[in-house]
Structure formats: C-alpha cells, structure tokens
C-alpha cells in the first residue's frame, strides 16, 4: 500500500501541474464562458417594430372592449321607452317630452323633428341618430300619381238637400248610414205630421253615432220645418209640458215646482238644473219652448 502513495519528484510535479490546469479550466468555465455567451446571445430591439407591435396590442384591446359593450340595433325613435332612452343617454325630461308628444297622436318623422321635440344636445343626436329607423313610407314616400282631389268645402244651405223630403235611398249615399239607418230616419221623420223641426232631431234615431249625424247634416238639412206653436215655459201647465218629447209627468211636475221656487225661469238653460232633466235632450226639448 505504501508503494501506491509514494511519488517521485517528477510525479509530484506532474500532479501539481494537473491540479493547476484543472483550476485554470474551472476559472475559464465560470468567468470567461458566461461573458462570451452573453455577447453572443445579445438581442437587438428595433423601436419601430416595438411600436408597431404595441399598436396591434392596443387595437386588439379596443376591439375586445367594444365587443363587451351592449350593441345598439336600428330602432324607431317613436317607441323609445324609459329604459331605452336612459341606456341611450337621454335625460328623464327629454324622454317625457317625447312621450307627451306621442300621447297627442303625433309621430316623429325625421331626425331634426326628434331633436325639436326632445331638445337633446347635438352631440347625443349625432351619436344615436345613425340607429334611427323610420318606416319606408316616411323615408321613401311614393310619388303621388293621379291623386283624387276631394272638395272639402262645406256645402251651403242652398246646396244641401231637404232632410224632410229625402228618400231612404238618397240618405244611403252618406257613408255610415246604410239601409238600416236610412229607414229608421225616414220612419222617425214620418212619425211627425210635417216632418222634422230641425236637424238636431236626428239624435233621436237610436244607434246613430254623432259622427254619422255630422256627415248627414253636411249633405242634408231641414229646409221645410214642421210648424209648431211653442209653449211658454213660465205659463205652461203640466198637461201642456207632457206633450213635449222626452218630458214625462214626473219631469213636468218638477219643472213647474222649480218655476214656483224660482219665481219664473229667466232662461231656458235653467231647465238643466231641474231634477232628472235629460240634459242630452235639451236641444230637442227647447225646440218646443219659449220664454217671456
């Protein structure tokens, strides 16, 4: 064993040189190689390319943010609700102005008219108006061809036909009358000896609407009224009053009693204050009355 650990001078020098070489190689590995490696792996960054890449990143971010925001689809501004208006950025006052305008049966037919009604700012109008969608007949009105022009000028008394001589067939020409109502009108008129006193008696035709009566009186009027002797309301007895249309015994009694309390009527309008007086028939009743 001793022979294995006993070295000559040459062997010791060799071992020393070997250890020194190992130390030098280790130093080169730890200190020299990393420096040369960093130099070889150094990255050169282009500022132009970096800015270009940053712009692409920012653009992608904007696209993502826009996709997360609620989308606005085309809509008719006439039907904006409270929620819809608030989401568009309108104030409560602006929304209320639009609703008040629509309650009048009116329609907004242009962007300019929308701003006039709501009084929204120019900036808000510019932001939301691209989404306005009006009906085609508003945005693309069809040209009028061969339009029929109606003469809406009311007929004069002379131009109208006499309601007391009109036939059922003539009355049927009025829109809304028809065979049924024309027969009822003629039947009521013939129930009086001499016909109607005035146009207002058409109100006694059961089921005849006021707008239809107005159409009838646009074409017809009583030109030959039935002659009657009017009753003085301040002298009339109950027996006289019950002969008048729409006045029964109880109402006649109330009229006489009220006359006593009032010391006579000053005007026929005071009859409306009598208990159970048919106010809706006042215009017909007063045809038969006078006052002194």
Summary of the model, kept short:
With 292 residues, the chain is an all-alpha fold. The chain has 13 helices and four strands. Helices cover 48% and strands 3% of the residues.
Mean residue pLDDT: 86
Helix count, per DSSP?
A: 13
CA-CA gap between termini: 167 Å
**Structural class, from helix and strand content?**
mainly alpha
Biggest sheet record = 2 strands, parallel
**What overall form do the CA principal axes indicate?**
rod-shaped
Strands side by side in the biggest sheet = 1-2
Transmembrane segments: 12-32
Keywords: Membrane, Transmembrane, Transmembrane helix
Protein name: Helix-hairpin-helix domain-containing protein
GO cellular component, one term: type II protein secretion system complex
Descriptive account of the structure:
The strands form 2 sheets. This protein has a two-stranded parallel sheet. Strands 3-4 form a two-stranded parallel sheet. The chain has 13 helices and 4 strands. It is mainly α and 292 residues long. It has helices spanning 9-40, 47-68, 82-88, 92-103, 111-118, 122-128, 136-139, 168-171, 178-190, 210-219, 238-241, 249-262, 282-285, and strands at residues 161-162, 220-221, 231-232, 289-290. Among the domains are: 77-139; 161-221, DNA polymerase, domain 1 (Orthogonal Bundle); 231-290, Orthogonal Bundle (DNA polymerase, domain 1).
